[in-house]
Specification:
The chain is α/β, with parallel strands linked by helices. The chain is 40% helix and 11% strand. It has eleven helices and eight strands.
């Protein structure tokens, strides 16, 4: 029996702690910063944000795939009445939490369905596609599913009219596509791959999104061969993900570097993270283009 399984079983037989709550408010817990943002957007749009408190019991630093909750977090997640979580493909441990919660009919849980379009599923695994806030269509679907559940639970009083437009992002994407023909993008982490590939950007990734996945020797060899054909590339790495020295050694003096945060922050528009990422990529490439003239 794993430590988490034992702890979950143990918690089922002890009373759950409760928050000190305002009697005039209802409480709703979410387990991902961007899902919390989606919920807050829906509540604000439908005018019920003042009646509901959206809480996130923990903060993830780095790739959500590599986060494991401690006993205090597990206990709180098992005790909160309403819980909304992203697909367990993003956070594998959440499946166990939701399974345990299902044994108590008083607890309401919702796991966001995995966005898996037919044209992308052959190319990318579920761990990559689970990054719903990094593709406008996936984000739109996440809003629809979340709003439907909020309506069922009585957190909103009418259906949400979801209007999703990615025209602004596609304009940025077309510019990025053009610039990437001269300077391709190399991602340390493949969360951005589905959307950038769809836009036609020349991009490749070193590291997958699998839980605990590491770069293999064969992958490194292929990258050496790839880089030999590209005089200059733009390396894009996550600010909160540790990079092994072997990967850093692949960078050359002619290459460009950009540090990004694909996770995003609380209390900002859920579409802002992707938009800012595209703009940062463009700025680096434009600056290099100007300096090269």
């Amino acid at each position: 029996m794993s430590k988490m399984t034992f702890f979950l079983t143990f918690l089922l037989i002890i009373p759950m702690s409760t928050h000190s709550k305002d009697n005039h408010k209802r409480y709703l817990a979410c387990t991902h910063v961007q899902l919390c943002n989606v919920i807050e957007e829906i509540l604000t749009q439908l005018g019920t944000s003042s009646e509901i408190s959206v809480t996130m019991p923990f903060q993830v630093q780095g790739d959500p795939h590599h986060f494991e909750p401690g006993p205090k977090v597990v206990k709180e997640l098992l005790g909160t009445t309403y819980l909304i979580a992203p697909s367990s493909s993003l956070s594998p441990w959440l499946g166990k939490i939701i399974q345990q919660r299902s044994k108590n009919e008083k607890l309401k849980s919702f796991e966001l369905p995995l966005w898996a379009p037919k044209d992308l599923t052959p190319k990318f695994n579920s761990e990559v596609l689970a990054h719903f806030w990094l593709h406008p269509e996936a984000l739109c679907e996440a809003k629809k599913h979340t709003a439907t559940r909020l309506l069922e639970w009585g957190f909103i009083k009418e259906p949400l009219k979801v209007q999703c437009s990615s025209s602004g992002l596609r304009i940025l994407g077309q510019k990025l596509k053009t610039l990437s023909q001269k300077i391709p993008l190399v991602l340390y982490h493949d969360a951005l791959m589905p959307y950038l590939t769809e836009l036609g950007v020349e991009v490749t990734a070193l590291k997958g999104s699998g839980h605990g996945e590491q770069v293999s020797t064969s992958q490194l060899k292929k990258f050496h061969q790839y880089l030999a054909k590209k005089p200059t590339v733009l390396w894009v790495r996550e600010s909160t993900i540790h990079i092994h020295s072997q990967l850093k050694s692949l960078q050359r003096s002619a290459d460009l570097n950009l540090v990004v945060d694909t996770l995003g922050k609380r209390h900002q528009p859920s579409s802002q993270t992707l938009s800012e990422l595209l703009k940062k990529l463009l700025n680096v490439l434009y600056q290099h283009q100007e300096e090269s003239r």
